[in-house]
Write a structure and sequence with these properties.
It is built from 33 helices and 13 strands. The chain is an alpha+beta fold.
């Protein structure tokens, strides 16, 4: 049975980590979920740091800051606007939960629209009597137990009934066809039914990827419902016999296990789309749903051409992985679909999506812009209500305001499109003042699609920016548990390892990611930088053959080949696959080349133009962006324009303070930037102190750029600076020895340099 617990207006399922109130649905990270469960079990008690660590972290050694972050995250989930702090901090003692759970409930029911709230949630009389007696007993016990801990003013209010929006998962239909290679047909039927039902008011439909993860899973509908966090399940089978198709479908209440509708249909294959629409209408009628609007009826997205539709379904199946090879196969299927039906709107939109997925892994947006834009324009001309097309088009928009407007338009038309929420969350999390909204959006994506690894991955990035590296790692491992071939989770586990100074572990994760998708440029660039973190130049060169834009630039800079680096940039080798890193590498190359050639003023002008610097700074959201402007300040200083250099430094210092307040996860990297600014200002002692803070735990991933920066030239002979460098060298040597051991055990492949130049 589900352990769904009500407290106040909230309903919480500790097994799925789902927190719900009305139509609000949030998926807590596992650690925060365990914290809430523990607090619910101890209402009114003052719980110490040690008690929380024992219960939530299994007794591991964790800092006070880790506990504070978990409590803060939970507070935010319960009251994003900060209006109602349900958890009280008791100075030097711990925390008190100011809420109390009712008896765990088996279900979060949702009845049909015509019933009143009292009628909706009224169980049979015998059950109400049993619950009442249980609650009386429980309340008496709690009163006696908590009397010593709770003041009268802290007594919780009675649990409130919670209205839940109906939730539905369309499970993969079984393929009963005798013909080979027809799985895509059954999967496509499930997908089309899901897409159509997602266009109804008041219905939350779990994304297909989550449902499809359960293909071949247990048949217990109650267990399936709990795992997906839904009330209703639509299941069925598809059988293709020559040119006819038979579909059997049934709608089940996952709480009671009761079947509430079923249908059996047989039509010609040419009538497949009409049949899917008919089934969707019957399901909607059983749930008493109303379509969003005539505009979103998706008529333009459909095709009367069965062969075109089948090609579309084959492509959709391929795109689930995001791998380069699969994206290319999807492109071929979609091109055939459009050739068969030039008026197929959804095929144009999905073709644009497939091209973008490939581009984001290989060369960035710009090389494909001229191809993708006409495809999306065509899709929307054929079907203005195709929300997915607006979401894809947002990738092409550089202006943040317009990009957000495009994403919200797509979500307005396709309100159950989980990827739209994930993409909007990813954009907003870059803005410190929008972080609370970003968290709500990614939680919405997780509620709609809890078994798609990318949603966990995006939330992991968000947690890492907030400084919760442990929470981020847990989410990335959960993503890999869902799909071991999810390459981005492997790469980011490497990034998290590198942030901790565990460069050998970072290499292992990077190698695993690259083995999954060897053609993905951004994976090779990431692995190059992991190897450079170890100082393993030969392995980095081997990975960067053939050359990648950012990988080759990093290698040239590591080798102090300033002329080669600038030549590489001027040949147009800059990469949009990792724009933040690219900007930092480019600025450092310009700085070094300008100083080496004795032309700092010329290069300062060129770099200011590249950065778009007009005397004001754009909103900076990450340390690499700051590094680019510190390089500009260094060039201005070297050119003798002290006033301009000081102006840039002052602007950066103000931005640093603001970002550090909302992005504690970047504190070490920001201390490294602060050290540069202090050194440029001649405050050597303060600069070394900032360096020591930045490197206290471990070397930073790009230490080989940072510690060799010209701003630190005066510091190199000072004992404290030399001691810091010695600690870094010792750490790296230990990591190199660890990597050698991992190679000996076959965990990491041997890499031989080839084609280094």
């Amino acid at each position: 049975m589900a352990r769904q617990i009500r407290f106040g207006a909230w309903c919480f399922d500790p097994d799925t980590h789902l927190l719900a109130m009305g139509e609000e649905r949030r998926v807590l990270e596992p650690r925060v979920s365990r914290l809430l469960e523990f607090l619910l079990a101890h209402p009114g008690e003052t719980l110490s740091h040690d008690q929380l660590v024992d219960a939530v972290w299994d007794g591991r050694v964790v800092s006070d800051e880790a506990v504070r972050r978990a409590v803060s995250t939970l507070r935010h989930a319960l009251a994003p606007d900060g209006s109602d702090h349900c958890i009280r901090t008791v100075h030097k003692r711990g925390y008190v939960a100011l809420f109390e759970a009712s008896q765990p409930q088996v279900a979060m029911p949702r009845a049909h629209r015509g019933a009143s709230s009292l009628q909706r949630y009224a169980p049979p009389l015998w059950q109400r009597v049993a619950w009442a007696l249980s609650l009386v007993f429980l309340a008496s016990a709690l009163t006696l137990t908590l009397l010593a801990y709770r003041r009268a003013s802290e007594s919780p209010s009675p649990p409130q009934a919670m209205a839940m929006a109906p939730t539905l998962a369309v499970l993969p239909f079984l393929n009963l066809s005798a013909e080979a290679d027809t799985d895509f047909l059954a999967d496509g039927v499930s997908e089309e039914l899901r897409d159509t039902l997602a266009r109804y008011h008041g219905l939350l439909v779990t994304a297909h990827a989550s449902a499809f993860r359960l293909q071949g899973a247990q048949t217990d509908v109650r267990a399936l419902g709990r795992q997906l966090g839904v009330r209703y399940l639509l299941q069925g089978s598809v059988r293709k016999i020559d040119e006819r198709v038979r579909i059997d479908a049934r709608l089940t209440d996952a709480v009671s296990g009761r079947q509430i509708w079923s249908g059996n249909y047989e039509r010609s294959l040419a009538q497949l789309l009409d049949l899917q629409q008919e089934i969707s209408t019957e399901v909607a009628r059983a749930l008493e749903l109303v379509p969003v609007s005539a505009q979103t009826g998706n008529a333009g997205a459909r095709t009367p051409n069965v062969e075109a539709h089948l090609e579309f379904l084959r492509a959709r199946e391929r795109l689930a992985t995001w791998a380069v090879d699969d994206a290319e196969q999807a492109i071929a299927h979609l091109q055939r679909a459009i050739a068969l039906d030039p008026g197929y709107a959804a095929a144009y939109a999905q073709l644009a999506d497939a091209i973008m997925i490939r581009a984001l892994s290989t060369g960035g947006v710009e090389p494909v812009r001229a191809t993708v834009e006409p495809l999306l324009d065509k899709a929307l001309a054929l079907d203005p209500g195709l929300g997915e097309a607006y979401v894809t088009r947002s990738w092409l928009i550089e202006d943040r305001v317009q990009e957000e407007r495009e994403l919200r338009k797509g979500l307005e038309l396709s309100p159950n499109y989980a990827r739209g929420y994930e993409m909007l969350a990813a954009r907003l999390m870059e803005l410190p003042e929008r972080q609370a909204e970003a968290l709500r959006l990614i939680d919405r994506a997780l509620a709609l699609d809890p078994l798609t690894p990318r949603n966990h991955h995006i939330k992991a990035i968000f947690l890492a920016k907030l400084g919760d590296l442990d929470g981020a790692e847990e989410l990335e491992r959960r993503a890999l548990g869902i799909d071991p071939r999810f390459r981005s989770a492997q790469l980011w586990l490497g990034t998290l390892s590198a942030l901790r100074g565990e460069f050998a572990q970072a290499v292992e994760h990077g190698e695993r990611a690259l083995a999954i998708d060897p053609r993905a440029t951004f994976l090779r660039e990431g692995l190059v930088n992991f190897y450079l973190g170890l100082g393993d130049v030969a392995a980095a060169h081997a990975i960067d053959s053939p050359a990648t834009p950012n990988g080759r630039l990093a290698l040239l800079l590591f080798d102090a080949d300033w002329n080669g680096a600038v030549d590489w940039i001027d040949r147009g080798a800059g990469s949009a696959t990792r724009p933040e890193l690219a900007k930092h590498l480019v600025s450092y190359a310009r700085l070094r080349h300008g100083l080496a050639t004795g032309n700092p003023a010329q290069f300062a002008t060129a770099l200011a133009a590249e950065l778009g610097f007009d005397g004001t700074l754009p909103r900076l959201t990450a340390a690499p962006e700051f590094r680019a402007y510190t390089d500009l300040a260094q060039l201005l200083h070297a050119s003798g324009d002290e006033a301009a250099a000081k102006r840039v430094q002052q602007l950066l210092e103000a931005e640093l303070d603001e970002l550090e307040a909302v992005a504690p996860g970047q504190k070490r990297a920001l201390d490294a930037v602060r050290a540069l600014l202090l050194a440029q200002a001649g405050r050597d002692r303060d600069a070394i102190a900032a360096l020591e803070r930045a490197y206290a735990a471990a070397p930073l991933p790009l230490w080989w750029i940072h510690l060799k920066h010209p701003a630190f030239e005066r510091l190199r002979g000072q004992p404290r600076f030399q001691a810091l460098v010695a600690r870094v060298d010792a750490h790296l040597q230990a990591q190199r020895e660890k990597l050698a051991q991992m190679r000996g055990r076959g965990l990491v492949p041997e890499r031989a340099a080839q084609n280094q130049r």
